[in-house]
Design brief:
The protein is of the alpha/beta class. The chain is built from 19 helices and 23 strands. Helix 14 (364-377) links the parallel strand 14 (352-355) and strand 15. The longest helix has 23 residues, at 523-545.
Length: 546
């Protein structure tokens, strides 16, 4: 433990989904731009070991780090904002906490003591608060506590925070509480009582928040800030307005205007250093909000009712669009609803087609139809993970005439298992254990679409899948017109496929969306959006000529 490291905790009250992750990411960005070495971690109160086995409808997308950790989607925000990788240590769940404590108890490490929530669970939580600092000594560690203050499942975290703050002292440990200021149309005013009650619940747990960030749809008048400061026992300068923004990437500007970073550094007795230089971010947001043109991308998936299921893909498209000064209009297409009869109506007016990742057979037929339409109509196509595998299946069936071509995920006894599970994976039965997770290298062939995008012959990308291209069909696919342009240098597993007679058709086994950043847009999304724009321009030109 080092007394040089400062700890900032972000808690939430009144209601969920107020944006603790965006608040933490935005504050961390401001502190990073002031010259501090900052990281963020998320503590989730659910009992799952990690979100890897959760249905996307339950918790949105599962984000994967370089070291193969399946984590909460907020880590995607952390990486996109800070432009630094996260790891296993950045996301901890109640399930992992209890798993660790129970394993130690079984090994006799507690010397026969009765194992209890206090002190054993809270001690493990406190250890995890500090654990991330063991490998990389940070100046400031932001910790987001998931859930809402008052939830039963969050109580051990709140108690651990109380103890942690007592042990480290208020000069090294600061608590930011995010609350809601609802606006009542009938009375025409913002109501502070929910915030007061939320702070009271924290006080009952022995924690006095240092900063209150008040989420509101309306400007917070000075007299309302005065009232909140007085009744919640915080300094007036520590009541921070957090208005709704048209894009999450504007939040750092709003918080800087409210001087949140200045208040935090002052309370932690840290030097203000240089003023944050947000020039790049200003340019980025300007391009994002003032595009020169618009392209429509069909996102074909089976979880489209919950857009957070594809959060990183959506953000990656938007970031790439802003880089090209293009607005990205996403047309959400449910793969279960896609048929040969309605495919033209569903996809005929789009500029690009992206077939999304997923698990299980539901919706696969619709994805095959989408791939076929993109291939035959010469519409720019990007298939990610399962999307790449579907492209291989579709090509096998409709071009190579491999009747019954399929993935063994969907048909274990198919005549042509063009997508198959590796032999060493078949022996693993534990959930998640059969998957290839985390960062793997890929050798990229020169003069391919991928090479033109990356400008490299060796890349590293993150994976989350258990089925692979069946290399026994490699020669057949190459001869038939599908180029295998990316392979793992150690295992020769196929990572990238492209079509030779198509303006832009690419399937990737990895997840490029996990490595797209505001300050470093992913090259594949850039190239895909460029191709979609070129397709749109050509279509418009053809219509004029007609």
């Amino acid at each position: 433990m080092t007394h040089k490291t400062k700890y900032i905790f972000v808690t939430g009250g009144v209601t969920s989904s107020l944006g603790k992750g965006i608040l933490a990411s935005s504050l961390a960005k401001l502190l990073q731009l002031r010259g501090y070495n900052v990281t963020i971690q998320k503590f989730d109160p659910y009992i799952n070991i990690d979100p890897g086995t959760l249905n996307p409808y339950e918790h949105g997308e599962c984000y994967v780090t370089d070291d193969g950790a399946e984590t909460d989607l907020d880590l995607g925000h952390y990486e996109r904002f800070l432009n630094v990788p996260t790891s296993q240590s950045n996301n901890v769940t109640t399930g992992r906490i209890y798993e660790t404590v129970i394993r130690r108890e079984r090994m006799g490490e507690y010397g026969g003591k009765t194992v209890q929530v206090i002190p054993h669970i809270t001690n493990e939580i406190k250890r995890r608060f500090r654990l991330i600092n063991e490998t990389n000594k940070f100046d400031i560690i932001l910790t987001e506590i998931g859930g809402t203050v008052g939830d039963i499942e969050s109580l051990p975290y709140i108690e651990a925070l109380r103890q942690f703050r007592y042990e480290h002292g208020p000069e090294h440990c600061l608590v930011i509480h995010l609350t809601l200021l609802p606006y009542l149309q009938a009375s025409g005013e913002l109501k502070t009582k929910p915030t007061q009650h939320s702070v009271k619940m924290l006080l009952q747990s022995g924690i006095q928040p240092d900063v209150l960030v008040c989420r509101s749809e309306h400007k917070v008048p000075q007299d309302v800030k005065d009232k909140i400061a007085r009744f919640c026992n915080v300094k007036l300068e520590s009541v921070i307005e957090n208005l709704n923004a048209s894009t999450i990437y504007e939040v750092p500007f709003l918080l800087k205007k409210e001087k949140l970073d200045t208040v935090v550094l002052k309370q932690l007795s840290l030097d203000q250093k240089e003023d944050p230089d947000l020039t790049y971010w200003k340019d980025f947001v300007t391009r994002l909000k003032n595009p020169n043109d618009e392209v429509t991308i069909a996102l074909v998936g089976k979880y489209v009712e919950l857009h957070d299921s594809y959060l990183s893909i959506v953000e990656s498209l938007g970031i790439a669009g802003a880089e090209n000064e293009l607005k990205i209009k996403i047309k959400w297409v449910h793969s279960e609803d896609l048929t040969n009869e309605n495919v033209v109506r569903q996809l005929g007016d789009v500029d690009g087609i992206l077939v999304a990742p997923g698990f299980g057979v539901r919706g696969v037929d619709g994805k095959i139809i989408a791939v076929k339409f993109a291939r035959e109509s010469k519409i720019p196509f990007l298939g990610i993970c399962l999307g790449m595998q579907i492209a291989v299946v579709e090509f096998g069936r409709n071009v190579l005439n491999l009747e019954g071509a399929n993935s063994t995920e969907f048909d274990e006894k198919g005549a042509h298992p063009v997508i198959n599970m590796m032999e060493e994976q078949k022996k693993v039965k534990q959930m998640g254990g059969t998957m290839r997770l985390g960062a793997y290298e890929c050798a990229v062939k020169r003069n391919s679409l991928a090479h033109k995008a990356y400008q490299k012959t060796r890349i590293t990308e993150r994976h989350r899948h258990r089925y692979e291209f069946n290399n026994s069909y490699a020669a057949q696919y190459e001869k038939g017109g599908m180029a295998l342009t990316g392979t793992n240098p150690d295992t020769e597993l196929v990572e990238i496929v492209e079509l030779k007679d198509h303006p832009y058709f690419m399937g990737v086994q990895f997840h490029p969306e996990y490595k797209s950043r505001v300050e470093r847009p992913h090259p594949l999304f850039l190239s895909f959006i460029n191709a979609a724009h070129e397709h749109m321009v050509q279509q418009n030109r053809d219509e004029v000529e007609e």
